[in-house]
Amino acid sequence: MEKPSLPSGTRDFSPRVMQRRKYITSVMERVFVSHGFGALETPSLENLRTLQGKYGNEGDQLLFKVLNSGDFLSKADPAILAAKDSKGLTPQISDRGLRYDLTVPLARFVVMNRNDIVFPFKRYQMQPVWRADRPQKGRYREFWQCDIDVVGANSVVSEAELVEMYLEVFAALDLGVKIRINHRGILDAFLGVLETVENWNAFMIIIDKADKIGFEGVSKELEEKGLSMALNAWKWLWDSKSVSGNAEKMLLAGGADFLQGDALNKGLGELEKIFGLLGDSTHVVLDFTLARGLSYYTGAVFEVEATDGRLPADFRLGSIGGGGRYDNLTGVFGLKDVSGVGVSFGLDRVYDTMEAAGLFDAMEQAVGGVLVCAMDTSCEVFGAGVARALRAHGFTVEMYPGTPKLKKQLDYANDKKMGFAVIIGNEELQANKVALKNLVSGEQVLGSVEEIAGVIAASI
Amino acid sequence: MEKPSLPSGTRDFSPRVMQRRKYITSVMERVFVSHGFGALETPSLENLRTLQGKYGNEGDQLLFKVLNSGDFLSKADPAILAAKDSKGLTPQISDRGLRYDLTVPLARFVVMNRNDIVFPFKRYQMQPVWRADRPQKGRYREFWQCDIDVVGANSVVSEAELVEMYLEVFAALDLGVKIRINHRGILDAFLGVLETVENWNAFMIIIDKADKIGFEGVSKELEEKGLSMALNAWKWLWDSKSVSGNAEKMLLAGGADFLQGDALNKGLGELEKIFGLLGDSTHVVLDFTLARGLSYYTGAVFEVEATDGRLPADFRLGSIGGGGRYDNLTGVFGLKDVSGVGVSFGLDRVYDTMEAAGLFDAMEQAVGGVLVCAMDTSCEVFGAGVARALRAHGFTVEMYPGTPKLKKQLDYANDKKMGFAVIIGNEELQANKVALKNLVSGEQVLGSVEEIAGVIAASI
Predict the structure, then answer these.
(1) CATH number given to B367-459
(2) How high is the ipTM of this complex?
């Protein structure tokens, strides 16, 4: 008999892991809902014509394609079959693929339901996506995205709200973070220095590596790529990272004579307004070097990194969230001028970061949970009644299915980190009492069901 | 530009629908967790060798198969390609498929993790499954299953617990239901009358249609299929439906001389024990005609139907849940003698039933929700602070992104069924006060943020 296995790049989530994941997502959802965002779920399967052409050539290759049902070869071109032309055959045998991200499905949903949607449309979406990527540490073929977007409004009130939601979520999760923020307008204002759009693109790709290769590394690469006209601009950018306050950074940009134009003014104006709308911007840092998703974002851009003091010194995982404003969500589906702003949470990375910071440990200590143990079958009906009565008090209560030796039942309770065992033998049955054992302290007391309910309530 | 569309048999779930679905699943999860069940999630993609051969020929054909990545034709057999043999080609170009149910993944998970799992393993799982079925009303290609199982124990304490969980869930959802229960042993005891296993199988298939074709219809079909030796047994079964009490039905079966053997005694014994363990069995009915999943279940079987008085008289949807005990969950993967018992909830059907009974209406009346409306941009920073202050009181608060005319902002609040608008113009700004409008009554008051927070709290 073949041993069963999982497809590479996929995972089972055990109850222990799910408890943690659900804790994270429930905190997120509570914040989302308190800001008036509603949940959207879209199908895992989308028509390939909806997906293809939206993620570039590389993305198209990473789409999981689903074989048409039935006699799928009946309409295939014999010449293509004879040539073993996989690429040519694909559109003849597959009409549907698996969701690659949550943005294209959002755009499709907005276009298909534009007459029913109340705009500004505030939605959150937490669902798996699939990519036929090479699996490696931390990169999966099935993974979760969690996106929140405000669609159909262009006020930076939304940018400020999304930043506050980031802060609220991570505060509720007790994870220390820093949010970096920049604006496409600031970066666009470097076009005068870079002279051509090609140079500007190359510049942005190089400075994006500053975290890894440092000031000198970027400088060297700029020279190698024939971008030495931007060396001064790069030095200015690098130095701006050390300027302490956000307002000071804005002043700096306003006074930099090589940065000019409407884009700069729009960028500075929106950033100032966003910071003005925030209640507490202690953990929000303006960073002119943040160059995120520039093929897509057109206004403010955000990135979140964990800075929690409890993380190991060598812990590095990159950003745990990010996003920005975009001007044209639905253009690919023929609906023009739909502006929006959105951010996403990297659920797997938030999980890994919280685990590394030890934030799950306290959560999982035995506190509640009651196992009702019947010593033999004659006690089971009484035990079932006790379990019902305790559950009515709001406790998590299980009754062991069966009546093995008490040790086996208690091992089960300890393995599941339950706090209490209620032990019922014939003596207790006759006396209409039960024995309560505190599985942490080992203490044992005898009492009526109502009495022991009080003992449990007092100790959790 | 092509209009985007959904693959047939799939659905988007809008925020309004998601709110209802999440209400249902959160009630279920609360009950599951209070009984010590933990969540399991398994990948959408499974290896086809895990799935194939588990659901019969028909099931194999309904599996969605995912095309291998890259040059998937490179190893295909040219003769099979030339013959356009779709069936022969499939295993050469597809290694993975989409999850077809939640039972095979559970079995795979148990086998792969048997050394780490704490048995009895109590898990719940709510995830979509996919079937390449012909879509029709109420039948989708992507739909949700919700399963709860106790694996690795064979005490009927678990059967009773699952029945109680059904009762708790539907009581919490305020939906009136009846749970029918039977035991494989009772049905097996008809083998003496039916003479052969083939006859027994045919008999079970026919009586399963009794709801639709009635007593006479079943009788007629039994004669046509050469099963007239079972006509008396069928009459006994039909009459047993009218016997009022569960205990009376058990007595009836014990006394029926054509029903005999160990299977009958085991069935009656377990049923008696299950009813004894239940706190209140008012809505639990013994029904000897219930013949559910007999190729799989080996002990007690359950089925839930909605009997809510608020349902329209012509509302018929079939069962909204069911399950039973099985003896050999993991045998297909080489692990013998793993017994379990499980039930499932038909999430889509529960939703449709609750909608038909009008149970969502009350839930969705405007009660909370506050929209902060800034009259012009100079009021936005003040407004953002008001929104933060009200949110700190626990209210759901949005600030309209932008400052269109008040009517447009209030329309948005009404469309989203919000309860209150907080209106901030320059006058309010100067006075450090805000205007609170109750969107249901139309009443308006002026006060400090703390004062209006009190007004909101008092009216929701």
Answers:
(1) 3.40.50.800
(2) 0.94
